[in-house]
Amino acid sequence: MSPTPPQQRGRKLAIIGGGWAGLATAVSAVQGGAEVCLLEMAPQLGGRARSLAADDKQALLDNGQHILIGAYTQSLTLLQTLGVDPEHAFLRTPLRLRYPRHEGLRLPSGAPLISFTRGVLANQDWPLSARLSLLMTAGRWLLKGFQCPPDWSVSTLCADLPRCVREGLIEPLCVAALNTPAAQASASTFLRVLRDALFSGPGSADLLLPRLPLSALLATPAQNWLLAHGAELRLSHRAQSLQADGAGWRLDGEFFDQVVLACTSVEAARLCRDIAPAWSQQAQTLRFEPILTVYLHSPGSRLPAPMVALQEGPQAPAQFAFDLGQLGTQPGLFAFVISGAAPWVGHGLAESGRYTLAQAIQEFDWATPPTVYRVLAEKRATFACTPGLSRPPMAIAPGLWAAGDYVAGPYPATLEGAVRAGQAAAAQALR
Questions:
Q1: Which tens digits make up the pLDDT trace of 134-184?
Q2: What is the pLDDT, as a whole number, of residue 54?
Q3: CA dist., res. 359 & res. 409, Å (int)
Q4: Quick one: pLDDT at residue 7?
């Protein structure tokens, strides 16, 4: 850790929100010498990437399945700062889209361009013409700097690709990265994800599947680190009021030099409604996409891979399935993820669970009959990453900043986007 500049020592910084963005803000601010007070309205840290408390009837479950990729360098650096060993915390493998009955795209290790070319050419599930079409299209994206008109959807971007490539690669990657169906998803944001994941360096496309519960991955290590470094954490505390006070701010009557709103866009819009009406209005216009996680129980069963891609359809909700036993957390439990799940939320959790169970029975061979263990809904999991979306900026007012995956930037609503937003807000607050 570099020495703290004298002008930053003792600066009081309030951070509202204890998700990944808020925790990244807090760690960076403490490293910069600020006196940090973090407020979180929930009784635990972690935000939308946390573990739910276990009880006598339910095992410890995450509120959703979150994966990292090798390109998420800032998230991995943050975890290492907190004492988390990535080699222990993740199962790291080259990008692999395994389906229930066949192998999909699988990238070998090596330099990005060579690895991508070899992986595409080796995919026997596609005809040679489809493989060559994808390579030529990806080459055009590369030559254009992964840029496209801002009003294009992913479906528009990929309209000329063969159907097997769209259904077997583009649509699963799009819904996994943007949580928005390809027909409604921003092509420019999707291209940025592809650029960083597939072409930014060796291992950038690697999948990092958590071997630890989500709270043990970041929230608990961050809480321990922050407390050990003198930060104040106020859990179960919802910020009520925020007003400018000279060169600083009054948060619920308490003075702070700087404030970072690392809470949801809804909470941030409420707190700064009278301070920055235009910013508040822009934040309120964001739409959200839900994610459902259907946990199935089948003792003794095993999926063909730790993470398996699925073909969704009118009666097949899930796009991915995770074998928690192969990940070393909960043998016999399987998490089926429904991204862009607005239609299924409308059907209800019980109905979504029944359809997912039927999909799972049809797609896999089970050692014991699977049953629905629990269905979890994160109704505001991500903002809807649509073409031409105008996201609110980080700067709200002098000394007042926003940090979150929804803030203007190149990434969709990912863990890496949240971490980078938090670190950027901390850097501005400490200037």
A1: 999 999 999 999 999 999 999 999 999 999 999 999 999 999 999 999 999
A2: 66
A3: 37
A4: 43
Which two tokens mark 147? Answer: 């840029």
| pLDDT for res 320 | 97
- Report CA 5 to chain centroid distance, whole Å: 33
Asked whether residue 82 is domain-assigned, the answer is no
CA dist., res. 352 & res. 357, Å (int): 9
Say which DSSP state 53 is in. Answer: P
Does residue 424 register a pLDDT over 90?
yes
Structure-token match 């004492």, residue found: 83
The total number of structural domains that make up the chain = 3
Q: Is the pLDDT of residue 57 over 90?
A: no
Rounded-to-integer distance, Cα 18 and Cα 350, Å: 30
Check residue 180 and report its DSSP letter. Answer: S
Which structural domain range is residue 162 located in?
A: 95-205
Which tokens sit at 66?
Answer: 């979150």
363 and 377 co-located in one domain: yes
Q: By CB neighbour count within 10 A (0-12 exposed, 13-18 middle, 19+ buried), where does 28 fall? A: buried
How far is Cα 156 from Cα 183, in angstroms, rounded to an integer? Answer: 8
> Whole-prediction pTM value?
0.93
Q: What is the CATH number of the domain that holds 227?
A: 3.50.50.60
CB atoms within 10 A of CB 371: 11
Whether residue 113 is predicted with pLDDT greater than 90 in this model: the reply is no
Query: Tokens 């301070």 — which residue?
Result: 275
CA 225-197-391 angle, 5° bins: 75
Handedness of CA 396, 401, 406, 409 (dihedral sign): positive
pLDDT (0 to 100) of residue 198: 82
Q: Contact at 8 Å (CB) between 125 and 164? A: yes
- The CA distance from 168 to 154, in Å, is 14
Which pair of structure tokens corresponds to residue 319?
């796009």
Q: Report which of 303, 269, 398, 305 is spatially closest to residue 97, judged by C-alpha positions.
A: 305
List of E strands, 217-316: 232-235, 242-245, 248-251, 254-256, 258-261, 288-297, 307-309
